Amino acid sequence: MMHTHLQQNSAHDESKREQEQQLKAFNDTKAGVKGLVDAGITTIPQIFIAPPTDGSKTSASPSTHSHFQIPIIDLENLQGHVAERKDIVKKVQVASETCGFFQVVNHGIPKEILHEMIEGVCRFHEQPLDVKKEFFNRDFSKKMRFNSNFDLYQSKVANWRDSFFCTMAPDPPEPEELPSICRDITFLYSDHVKRLGLTLLELLSEALGLKPKHLEEMECDKGHSLVCHYYPACPEPDRTIGTTEHSDPDFFTILLQDHIGGLQVLYQNQWVDVKPVDGALVINLGDILQLISNDKFKSARHRVLANKVGPRISVACFFSTHFQPCNRVYGPIKELLSEENPPLYKETTVRDYVAHYHSKGLATSTPPLEDFRC
């Protein structure tokens, strides 16, 4: 019996060493998933294969909650009559309390800027490798970094995507720190999305029954970053995943996605497609907002499927302060608490929360937020 146990341990250790070698070899190419596709692979490497447990990790598990649609909220009359604003706030409230996801249209960012941002991300990822890999690094202190899978060495399964990350506020990068091929549109898009973020914080504050500036005064607007994803066409999409199921470790995220689709949100234990809408932006609430709202708002788990069609491009703007020396402590908002509604979470800084989140990687059985419950 002891001999069998030792054999199992030895096999496990050997398998782990082999995986670590494969991960290092993949990382050392600095070419990302696109490099694999450019090499003409027809079978995906072992490190990308998701376990076929219940089918929930791959595109073999389609959306089964087809009657539910992610709300689309029109912001056009936001500054109009009081009753119109109240109606918008109510829609934001319902979406935030139920699925934690909604899309906004007439949000004030011109379609041509959205289109150019998508094009800029595509241009960056499709540059010659010699040019692109100059930006390759895994140093979280750098304002610009390009890599494949930020949690490559923590997660059980690598995701079928490459990304570049830019910290844009409160201390933006110098122009020369960003790639010239998408520099101007990145700064322009960042300015626009910052303004939209302030509008959304007002709506979310009012949806919590607070004054419009409450969340802004809590400095929820003080930092944001852009994460620009490139999901190449996959030869075996049913065996891997574009982005593993997860929630976001921020206040909220504004997502620009192209027309291809693949984003899904978990609603009532069913996967629901977040179908692309021309000119719309997807808003999803993050873990820190669920924490400070004391579970009134939901930070929904979501994922991105791999696809035979590609590349799929998306740009996530994360409103968070973890990339700056911010020591502000966040806990459930006092105005929302009572004897009947006691605090459900411990206080934490955003930086400490994100460090805990990153230490677990995306493919974790216990959501990081659960570790902060009282």
TrEMBL record:
Residues making up the signal peptide according to the UniProt record: none
UniProt feature, compositional bias: Basic and acidic residues: 11-20
Highest taxon listed in the record's lineage: Eukaryota
Compositionally skewed regions (Polar residues) per UniProt: 1-10
PROSITE patterns per UniProt: FE2OG_OXY
Organism, scientific name: Lotus japonicus
Cofactor(s) the protein requires to work: Fe cation
Residue intervals of the Fe2OG dioxygenase domain: 222-322
PANTHER family reported in the protein's UniProt record: 2OG-FE(II) OXYGENASE FAMILY OXIDOREDUCTASE, OXIDOREDUCTASE, 2OG-FE II OXYGENASE FAMILY PROTEIN
Transmembrane segments: none
Family designation: Belongs to the iron/ascorbate-dependent oxidoreductase family.
Keyword terms: Iron, Metal-binding, Oxidoreductase
InterPro entries xrefs: DIOX_N, IPNS-like_FE2OG_OXY, IPNS-like_sf, Oxoglu/Fe-dep_dioxygenase_dom
Entry GO MF terms: dioxygenase activity; metal ion binding
Protein name: Fe2OG dioxygenase domain-containing protein
Region Disordered, residue ranges: 1-20
